[in-house]
Structures are given as structure tokens and as C-alpha cells.
Known about the structure:
The chain is an alpha+beta fold. It has helices spanning 15-20, 53-71, 140-143, and strands at 2-3, 22-28, 33-39, 76-87, 96-106, 111-119, 124-136. The longest helix is centred in the middle third of the chain and has 19 residues, at 53-71. Residues 1-7 have low confidence and may be disordered.
Amino acid sequence: xxxxxxxxxxxxxxxxxxxxxxxxxxxxxxxxxxxxxxxxxxxxxxxxxxxxxxxxxxxxxxxxxxxxxxxxxxxxxxxxxxxxxxxxxxxxxxxxxxxxxxxxxxxxxxxxxxxxxxxxxxxxxxxxxxxxxxxxxxxxxxxxxxx
Length: 147
């Protein structure tokens, strides 16, 4: 069943969501797929006019991470061991990009995730895979990011 409300409810409270312009859109439990929308700020781009590669990794990581959080009902968060990404084309400043993440396989000790970023017109910008370990998801107060 697809969820149309943001999940988890505190996703917008993490400091990195403001930097990335993140909005969690939905999670489909049947396919273990999450969707996010990002608004690309000019500060994320290089002099070439596209998002800097390490920051592209941030978008890809964000969608994989929140997808796994949603898949576990907010109980767990992935701690990355490895991320591999392919930068297919520049993501221009001002773009709205759609991130899709998927839990490929989740075990007790290892989680395999994947994600991709596309433009609103379906243009593919980047793809990634991640190997992570499932960990208890910290609260905002535990992580020191809450008030």
C-alpha cells in the first residue's frame, strides 16, 4: 500500500534536510520503495552549473536512508559501509529532482539499498547502491540535533 503522507513525521527536522531541500513524498510497502523530492539550491552547484558530485551522493544517500527508515516503521536507520554511485549528467541549479530509493534486501546484519535521481521529465541524473548495517534510529534529542 502506498503512503501519500510524509514519513517519518520528523524527517524535516534533521539539519541536512534543509541543506538538501528534501521532502519525503511517499513510501510503498509492497515494493519497499520510497520517493523524495529535492529542490536544488545554487549553493549546491559548481562553476560548471551542476550539483557537485559529493553533494549528489548526499541526495542519493538521503533517499536510500529515509526509504529504509520508512520500511522499518521508523525503528531503524542504515549506517553506510559503502556507497557506489554513477553520475550520469549534471543536475542544474534550480531543478526539482525526484529521488527514488529501494530496499533491495534487509537482513539483521546487512542491508542492501539502491536509489536514483531523475528530473521531473524523467531524465536520469544519477544512480547509487549502498551496503549498510541496520542500527537503532536515534531521536533528535539523542543525536543532539533537537531542542
